Here is the input.
Amino acid sequence: MAKDNKSGKPEWYPLDNAGVLYSAIQKERYSAIYRFSAVMEERVDSAALQRAVNRTMPRFPSFGVRIKKGAFWYYCEPNSSPGPFIREDISNPCQPVRFREDGGWLVRFYYYERRISIEVFHAISDGGGALVFFKTLLAVYLRELGYAVPNECGILDVDQPPKKEEREDAYARYAGKRVLRAPLGEKAYPNTGTPEPFYSLNVTMGFLPLDILKEKAKSYGVSITEYLTAVLMKVLVEKQHRERPRRERPVALAIPINLRAWFPSKTLRNFILTVRPCIDPSLGSYTFEEILSQVHHYLRLNINRQQMQAMLTGNVRFTTNKILRLIPVALKDPVMSLSYHLAGVRPYTGTYTNPGAFLVPQAMGRHIRRMEVILGQATLPRVHCASISYGNEMEITFAGTLKETDTERDFFRFLVREGIPVKVESNRTACSELMF
Amino acid sequence: MSYCVNCGVELDDTARFCPLCHTPVVNPNQPVNDALPTPFPEERGEVPPAAKREAAILLSAMLASAAVCCGVLNLFLHPSRMWSLYVIGAAVMLWIWLVPPLLDRGMHLLLRLMLDVGAVALYVFFISLDLNGWTWYAGLALPIILWGGSLVLLLGLLLRVNRRSLLTTVTILLGSLGAFLVGVEFFIDHWIARAWEPTWSIIVLAICAGLMIPLLVVRRVPALREEARRRFHL
Here is the structure.
């Protein structure tokens, strides 16, 4: 994918279609950022962590890039700036990135007490790719501390050179001939609230025992992702109903699907698509079991190889269309921004992502207490939900730039009523005046 | 460990209130442990404003080249009349409007508004130079610009420095529009007849007041405000 480098200039490569979108909607006050954190058993050794970053970054060239604006498209080139350097953590994570500042780095490293965090700009990688990077970084960090950690469970060998297939544009590789364009979804219940002043990100995390959660989902005959999706939709339907709008709008969630499970690829760049389970309360009231059934069957019906291939083909055609290629990026950006709002924001109430279980070798597992994930700010003041499991603990995060806590409060209360114990932590330091 | 009495969730040992419902933690058996580190850092990170120097340089070059080209052309095309002042004045006005905010991202809003109003006054001054219109500029145009500018400064102070709700914003904007037009008629009357005989501006002011009163009522009565919010899904 990287261009031939005979002139001595850095090798550049075009962004994949998801990267193109996230770069186009990038603004001074908004970036598509997400964060993964590992809470270790011991306090973080910052010197060892910096050494681990320095050793790991060359193995992952797709993370050591900067994004530049060309005349017609954005593109990536290797970043030769000093760094990236680890920093002490902050209370308002997932801050917007700057393409031309901070060395142009699109991945950031933080530490606080026992927590190690990485933040990634979505244009360079999705959660699946970032988890491979983070897992390898944690392994190298533990080795720097003197522990023996084997290269298993997806940990890459940092002494090996990077592989070409890890930087491939998997969308382009699997693009077929048939194009399936999903119809523009109806405007969904927006679930917006009172925005916090720029820049604040309120994060609330809930910790649940995985075995009890799994047992509960099994009792309904669904997977954990389906169960948590249905719980979120149920509380959103009820929240909208409480607000007594003149007309109740559909409640729809964006659920990212990791395509690597259907299309074998070792890419560490973006390779996801989203599906849109939807409940329309204007048709009548839904019980929780009915919502569960809708979500379960919708996901089983719509997540299939053929349909997803046709959808990703449509996205790839967009970046390869010869007419669109000739439109300057300055004109393309506002059009893509508007398209994203119409097709990616307006028809959705929120996002829920579940990257799944974080599996590590046994020798590494005893040094990690728990894993956390944060989906950064949305383009509107609304909350996004993300979850990750590690060992026997499921971590669920609600993060957003709004003051109200209604969504997460109702969500965790629902789980408690279901008999699942929940422990809650948050970065909110002051009681909101909205509550009283 | 403490649990929230409302939500039933377990709370962190350092939590002083439930993050979900903000109920204070009161547990005599286990008081809040301030010795432990909080789950999240308390230090806030600031987001530096993105530098726009390149955009400022590009814009300055474009405006300067347009102004210089027209100035040089004026020497050969209709040199008896300074028509290029219109273009040069517009370029200067646009430069003052657009470039200083790009160079100084933290510029105070009131300073920016003052510069903007000054730029408008300068542009109209260039026009008056070409038309030999110092009299109407000083007697009519400048007072109207200064009156409008002072209202814009006031609006900037009321709306941007201190954030207002949507209803209050619309009410203030309507009131400002009425006041501005009363001022405009005052200056026109004073310029023409040296006496103020308000007519059309009073009608506009009355319409603005008529629109403001229901907005003020909705703003003051919580039940009506809630109803409006629900109707418009705000």
Summary: Chain A has two domains: 13-174, 202-429. The interface with chain B takes residues 28, 88-92, 95-96, 98, 100-101, 112-113, 198-199, 203-206, 243-246, 405, 408-409, 412-413, 416-417, 421-429, 431-432, 435-436 of chain A (CB under 8 Å). The longest strand of chain A covers residues 33-40.
